[in-house]
Structures are given as structure tokens and as C-alpha cells.
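call fold(seq) -> C-alpha cells
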Amino acid sequence: MNKFRIGLIGLGGMAQEHIRWMNHENMYTFVAVSDLNGEAVTRVGDQLGIEESKRYVDFKELIKDPDVDAVISITPNNVHADIIRACLEAGKPFLTEKPFTRTYEEAVPLLEQYEQQQPIPAMVGFTYRYTPAFRYARELVRTGKLGTIRHFSIQYLQGFGVPSHQVPYMWRYNKAITGTGTLGDLGSHMIDMARFLFGEFEEVTAQLQTIIPERHDPVTGAMAKIEVDDFASFQARMTGDIMGVFQTSRNAFGSGNQHEVSIYGDLGTVHAGTLDPERIVWIREQEQGQLSTTTLEVPAHCKVKQYADFAAVLRGAPADGVPGFMDGYRNQEVLDAVVRASETKAMVELPKV
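ret:
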């Protein structure tokens, strides 16, 4: 089988993870790279054996390169929309990082463009759809093993931003680059997980907060005001009147990468998360009035890899549950509703799907 020829845009730290994931699948070869940082272009270009003529500063030149079969974009949020637009214009398949865009206003014209032409293969990097425990939880929900789902809770906690760590001002705290803070960074994963497990959002209420109001800027030497949230909580009513509670924070002391969900159905409860990604906890009634709590290993068929699915997308045969273009757009729609709900201190309804 011929390998898909990949152009990689954005050569920061996360790019190395994606390179490793793609190499593991043995379905891809890297033919072009792009970044504004010339040192990164040289370093990663040398690492991947990219010829000099395929090392681009302008990502649009990489996207137009006829030797590139598909684009992988691992960039800050402020260029997501421009890269998606350029891929649509060139008819080039792509995988883009989340969130889909900085704002809903940036997402709307992309959808219009996408719908006005022949849709191209596309995937959005909601990587936690590929956490085995979450996929097994979805199977239990979809097969009715938990009965009617009544409500759930999802949280995504990290501790790297706590005051004692003295994390300096960086692009993730810059509203012009990110759009939102922990909401778009971590909260977008929570929103996607809820849609992956349960369906569409119908209404939300929310509260966003900036816990650490300023951080030291190593460039200027001064304290920089933080204009994005580092804590977000919201509630939602999903399709079928399933109620959800969401919490995310960068200031959760002791949390590394703690993304987890608890699902409450009439016939059982399931807990799943990233801290034990190949097991779930299932609480059910074995006999009348007798509860049983069991830790189950995730079956092999739930251990799907993101870049195996992306290869299927490129072949024109996407698997069930692949996060596609519309998942990115719907996610941005919910993010916008959460922001508006927090600003207005009122419930916000989502458009009917």
C-alpha cells in the first residue's frame, strides 16, 4: 500500500507527538513542513529528511504543493481558520487541531465554504475519542447496558497553572491568539466527549472565571493581565433530556491530565477517564438491592488509534465516531453558547440540529 504523503504545519512540541503517532501506523510519509520559526523548520526538516524545497515559511505554499496528499495542522488557535480555509480552497484533505476556530464568527464562513463545494476529507483532533475507556463507555451507552441515561458529569482538570508553579504569560493566555482560555483548550474536549457519548447540546448555563488575574511576561519583564478564563463550569441539557455538569480548570493542584466522565443510567453507572485509560468502573445491581462494583478491562475492539482512523478518512471510508468537519463546527457553536451564557448569566439555547 502506498503511504499518504503528509505536509505538517506547526512544528512545536505537540508536533513530535503527532509524528510519533503517525510513524506507529506505518501509513504515512512526511514530504513537507511549515512553521514561522526557521530554526524549527530546519530541525524538524532534518529530522524527517525533508528536501530543502519542501520546507515552507508560508503554510499556503505547503497546502498548494501537489506532492502533499493531506495536511496535518498542529498550530495555535489564531491560524486554525486560515489553514482550514486554505485547505478548502485547495481541495486538500486535512486534520486540524482543536478548537475548530477561536470564535464562532470565524467558524460560520468556513461552514458556508464547506457546504458550497464538494466536501473534502477532514478530521478535527479530538484525541480523547481514542481513549479506550471512553470508547467502551460509549458502547455501553449505545447498546443500552446502562438503561436510559439520566445525567452525567464530565471534568477535565490540570494543575500546571497553580500559583506555586509561577507559570509565565504565554500564548495560551493571550486572547487574541486563543479566543478563550481553558474553555477552548480543555473545555472543547469535554464538549466533544459529551457529543460523542450522548448526542447534541440543546441548552447551556455557564460561569467562566479568571482565577489568576495576571502573570509575569518574560518578554516585557512586566506583569501581564490575563483576559481569558482559567476555570469554567457549565450545565447542559442534551438530546433526550440528558442533563450534564461540566468543570475544567488549569488550577487544580495535583492534577496532571485528569479527564473523566461519570454516566448515570437507570440500570447502572460507569466511570471512565484518562488516569486509567484501559479500564472502566461499572456499578450495577446483581440481585435485588445488591450493588456490584466491577473494574472491567476495555475490550480490544475499543482500542482504536486516531491516525488509523485518519487513514480511513483519506480512503473515503470513515469509521463510526470519527470527529469530522461538522464535529468541529458544532463544538465551536457550543463554546460560543457557553461564553454567551456566562456573559449574560442566562440560559442559552443551541440551534436545532
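The chain is about 35% helix and 30% strand.
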